[in-house]
């Protein structure tokens, strides 16, 4: 069965290293062909999270940094399923997320965008998938913000995601976008994705995920490279 | 067989630190991993810098190390934005040889300007005998092989990563 699976990055879906419209790639993208290796014990495994204890509010960005009130902005709940390429759920894997606040400002000290910080919003959190590969976290819908890539450049609303999966080849860092965002067509980071892959990063609004009188619901399913259904147990 | 399409990668961007390496950068959020992968008395120090195509050190990369030699499974993560000269450093155990191959550590590299992360390996300059016979090292041209070998120094092992240029590090497709 495994021989049918192309276990490499599907470059009809992933963005290339060199994408000159996104100017930071010009001096940072590797230029020589990748060397193909066969996987050894170390590549067939990765960090496991069986013993990792999440903080009780790690999954709730609307509450995990409160100082003196609720964070400002539109509360959302983001839910989805993490699977491998066979559609098998990836359980007990860690998702880490980070994002700008509702005004489009990151807490990071390097972010100089002249928009207000929210004293009650840090903009980061994490959660684990359950036994069925499902995850869920609460946050504030991130704002768009300007950046220096080109004249009048704005990043569309997005949430950064970091995931592990079963081994280090399934490692993924990506960004979740929102449906109908008019900035997507102008964004060189999003547009570096080949046509076949683009829709895969746009979450869908889902009324069944939406929590009445509380938060709008978005669904974002994630497929990690590979076909190891159960993370390699190494202890 | 119908395979699901892989979710596309996107860049880690410049603002990952408060989410992925918060304690290292002084943010008020618990880190679950850092650069101290081992507290063993025999632990080694691995350090280096990441260079762009103009030879400038990169101050907003994130480096992850993973090693599994069957005995020890160790994971570490560190950003290049807090130490002098944009250095990264890790404390870990030197891995053992597996199946007579040279010992190595897997490296995953993320940064603004990378839409897809890069994989490389750290081998060790004091493992000449095994390095000479290692099938993966020997599959790389002799001129480029040196980019995968950390140099033993008084402070530990120095491993610099060059994203481009004549010294471009060998990156792997795994």
TrEMBL record, chain A:
GO terms for molecular function: ferric iron binding; protocatechuate 3,4-dioxygenase activity. The keyword Iron does not apply. SUPFAM superfamilies: Aromatic compound dioxygenase. GO terms for biological process: 3,4-dihydroxybenzoate catabolic process. PROSITE patterns: INTRADIOL_DIOXYGENAS. InterPro entries: Intradiol_dOase_C, Intradiol_dOase_core, Intradiol_RC_Dioxygenase, PCDO_beta_N, Protocat_dOase_b. It holds the Pfam family Dioxygenase_C. Coiled coil: none annotated. NCBIfam families: protocat_beta. Belongs to the intradiol ring-cleavage dioxygenase family. This is Protocatechuate 3,4-dioxygenase subunit beta.
Automatic annotation (TrEMBL), chain B:
InterPro entries: Intradiol_dOase_core, Intradiol_RC_Dioxygenase, Protocat_dOase_a. GO terms for molecular function: iron ion binding; protocatechuate 3,4-dioxygenase activity. Keywords: Dioxygenase, Oxidoreductase. The keyword DNA damage does not apply. It comes from the Bacteria. The keyword Metal-binding does not apply. NCBIfam families: protocat_alph (TIGR02423). This is Protocatechuate 3,4-dioxygenase subunit alpha. It comes from Confluentibacter flavum.
């Amino acid at each position: 069965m495994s021989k049918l699976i192309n276990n490499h990055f599907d470059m009809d879906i992933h963005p290339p290293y060199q994408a000159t419209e996104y100017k930071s790639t010009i001096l940072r993208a590797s230029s020589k062909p990748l060397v193909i290796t066969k996987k050894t014990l170390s590549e067939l495994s990765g960090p496991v999270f069986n013993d990792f204890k999440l903080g009780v509010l790690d999954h709730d960005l609307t509450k995990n940094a409160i100082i003196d009130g609720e964070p400002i902005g539109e509360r959302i709940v983001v839910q989805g399923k993490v699977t491998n390429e066979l559609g098998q759920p990836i359980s007990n894997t860690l998702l880490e997320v980070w994002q700008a606040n509702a005004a489009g400002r990151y807490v990071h000290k390097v972010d100089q965008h002249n928009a207000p910080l929210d004293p009650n919003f840090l903009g980061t959190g994490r959660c684990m998938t359950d036994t069925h590969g499902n995850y869920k976290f609460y946050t504030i819908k991130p704002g768009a913000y300007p950046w220096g890539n080109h004249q009048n450049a704005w990043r569309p609303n997005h949430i950064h995601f970091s995931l592990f999966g079963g081994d280090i080849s399934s490692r993924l860092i990506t960004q979740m976008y929102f449906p109908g965002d008019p900035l997507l067509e102008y964004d060189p980071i999003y547009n570096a994705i080949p046509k076949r892959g683009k829709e895969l990063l746009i979450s869908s609004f889902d009324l069944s995920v939406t929590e009445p009188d509380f938060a709008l619901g978005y669904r974002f399913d994630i497929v990690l490279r590979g076909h190891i259904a159960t993370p390699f147990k190494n202890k | 067989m119908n395979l699901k399409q892989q979710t596309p990668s996107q860049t880690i961007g410049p603002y990952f630190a408060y989410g992925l390496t918060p304690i290292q950068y002084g943010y008020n959020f618990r880190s679950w991993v850092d650069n101290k992968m081992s507290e063993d008395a025999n632990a080694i120090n691995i350090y280096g810098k990441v260079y762009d195509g103009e030879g400038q050190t990169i101050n907003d990369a994130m480096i992850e190390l993973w090693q599994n030699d069957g005995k020890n499974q160790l994971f570490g993560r560190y950003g290049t934005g807090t130490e002098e000269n944009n250095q990264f450093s890790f404390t870990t155990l030197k891995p053992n040889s597996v199946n007579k191959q040279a010992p190595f550590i897997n490296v995953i590299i993320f940064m603004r300007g990378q839409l897809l992360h890069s994989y490389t390996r750290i081998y060790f300059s004091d493992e000449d005998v095994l390095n000479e016979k290692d099938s993966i090292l020997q599959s790389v041209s002799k001129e480029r092989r040196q980019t995968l070998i950390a140099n033993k120094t008084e402070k530990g092992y120095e491993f610099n990563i060059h994203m481009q240029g004549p010294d471009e590090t060998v990156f792997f497709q795994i």
